[in-house]
Fold this sequence. Notes:
- The complex is a heterodimer of chains A (296) and B (377).
- By secondary structure, chain A is of the alpha/beta class.
- Chain A has helices at 16-29, 46-50, 52-68, 78-93, 95-106, 121-129, 131-137, 173-180, 204-220, 231-239, 241-248, 259-267, 284-292; strands at residues 2-6, 32-35, 73-75, 118-120, 146-149, 184-185, 225-228, 255-258.
- In chain A, strands 2-1-3-4 form a 4-stranded parallel beta sheet, with helices on both faces. Chain A has a 4-stranded parallel beta sheet with strand order 6-5-7-8, sandwiched between helices.
- In chain A, helix 3 crosses helix 4 and helix 6 (121-129) crosses helix 8.
- The longest helix of chain A has 17 residues, at 52-68.
- The model of chain A has no long low-confidence stretch (mean pLDDT 96).
- Residues 373-377 of chain B have low confidence and may be disordered.
- With 377 residues, chain B is α+β, with helices and mostly antiparallel strands.
- Chain B has helices at 34-45, 79-87, 115-124, 145-148, 151-154, 161-165, 167-171, 178-188, 196-205, 218-222, 229-243, 252-266, 271-280, 291-310, 316-319, 331-345, 351-354, and strands at 2-10, 20-28, 64-67, 70-73, 96-99, 106-108, 111-112.
- In chain B, the strands form 2 sheets. In chain B, strands 2-1-5-3-4 form a 5-stranded mixed beta sheet. A two-stranded antiparallel sheet of chain B has the order 6-7.
- Chains A and B meet through helix 2, helix 3, helix 4, helix 5 and helix 9 of A and helix 7, helix 10, helix 11, helix 12 and helix 13 of B.
Amino acid sequence: MKVAYWPGCVSRGFTPELHGSMALVAERLGIELVELDRANCCGAGVIAEHNQELVDTLNARTFALAQKTGLSMMNICSTCQGAQSECQERLDADTAYRAHINEALSAEGLAYERGISNKNFLWLLVEDYGLDQLANQVKSPLEGLRVGPFYGCYIVRPKHRLGYDERPERDLYLEQVIEALGGEVVEYAGARKCCGFPIVTMNRETSLRQAGTHVGDALDADADCLVTPCPLCHLNLDMQQPEAAKIVGRDLGLAVLHLPQLVGLALGFTPKELGMGKHIASTEWVEERLSAVPAG
Amino acid sequence: MSEFTLKVRRFQPESGDPPYWQQYDVELDETLSVLDGLLQVRDREDGTLVVRCSCRAAICGSCGVKINGESALACKTKLRDADEFANRRNGGGQPIVVEPMGNMPVVKDLVTDMEATHWTKIRRVTPWLLPEGDPPEREYVVPPESMIDVTQSMACIQCGACVSACLSMEADPDFIGPAALAKAYRFVGDPRDDQHAERLNDLAQDPHGIYDCTHCFGCIDACPKGVAPMDQIMRLRRLAADEHGIDDVNNGRRHEAAFTKIIERKGTLDESLLLQESYAAGVKGKLMPTPGAIKGLIGSLPTALRGLRTGKMRSLAKLIPGVHHKLPGDSQKDVKRIYAHAEDHREQLNLYIKGEEAEQEAPEEAVEPEPDEEGDR
């Protein structure tokens, strides 16, 4: 399998462990990543506030760069998925609008053609790679590890835009992956709620209250860790966790893994190889938990 | 006919008991609604079950509830769909769970107090026209096309489903919220209204206003009428920040401007620079940061230091705003050219109004305007 790979900004910024672990895991799974190193930021919903045409053109450029490779596109960020799907919805809906946007790309020799396939690693794993094939690759099943899924809003809503009409189980994929890796799914209130990150610089209290509440709920449900396909959620759930703890007035301390890290653990990589030491909330408990279970 | 089990959250304040769950079996055609199911329970099995409804056709907006945790109108949700959703993970035998709407007090069983949050917040945005001068002798005359933009927010039937689904309001009950802000856009986008700047300034400066929305899309999925309140909130932000240049105390405009500028200069996000500029644009130059901005910057220091310690921020250089790399080759120039093109045109495509093309060259269909001016009950 070979994909045009858009890693996004944050995986190469404040969550470098995501970019690194994705590279390791893709190689082990036999997914060849053709990185779109000339592509630009998706706008993360912010540029859309400023100028809709601008964000549509920026993402049309990324899509056109992907289409030039002749491959389907893969991302590793719920926010990229949602922001890009929003632009794609408009670009695909209207021929005249698409032509207008393509005018701006023509100087670079690019043009976006309607109907690109752009999937988050989570969707690709379930829909194209396949859970059976994934399970076959597991070397160290995550037995006894209680994992809370955390999707990120941009990959679960709005359902129509994100293809739920054809793929209604997309908001169950994390659960399915956790089980395929041998882990145990933790049911808790926050799995499909908002981490609060988009307003952390505007209303810190509302933002971190959301993150802190979800981490707390997962702890109350006896989770050993959370897993997320969104590095922006990771920033609020992990990087800001000590600050979120202050806002909700309780001790937290719950490891938050990026999706490729969770897959990587089951494939036999060490936490160190997967960059888990870079996290703010300690991941030691996850290691202890996994080593406590006798092999076999 | 099919059998369905409804698991209903009951609450009678006069009893002094806490809320409890009660299950009912109903037998109905699978294409009938959850509301039909609830009404059958009330008619045949338990006359004490309290549910609010009127039109049964998704027009009056009375029967908002949560079905399997999702805010919706009971009359617009088919039993078959609700049953499938309830059983999609657990493989069958699960009841359809029906609860009162969230983010508002419960009066009894499935009936919530719409006054306490919903209507109070609607009134907060001055939901009536504030025109300039004396009213004309006859009706106000405006070109029809100038009203098209607000037809989407006019479609609201005030059911409160978006308020129930709002995740920001769950964390901050004072958030003005999706229904009221969509209503605010209805007047900010109305050419007859003379208070656009005042309205926008009010909603931008309020810490619980337009910059308290966290982009969760909950309201978009919950709305039975396609109002997409979050999209209206983003339109309010665009107007406040870009058209009216309102420098709000919440750093909303600064954040948006900084983000947009960084991508023009670097192509991908320089998080350190974003953090600095969001809180204190011009800390190096013209503008002085506000006390709020200084507080924000200081507040983010512990997080930055922790990141440096674990290696998350990779290096000290990564933390210095502005050292972030540009896109390779000519790509940065290409991005700049896109900016020039798009900032010149600023075209907006609203699919609610325009509709999606079925295939390559679908003919343009006439817009069906919403017949009810206000849509209010």
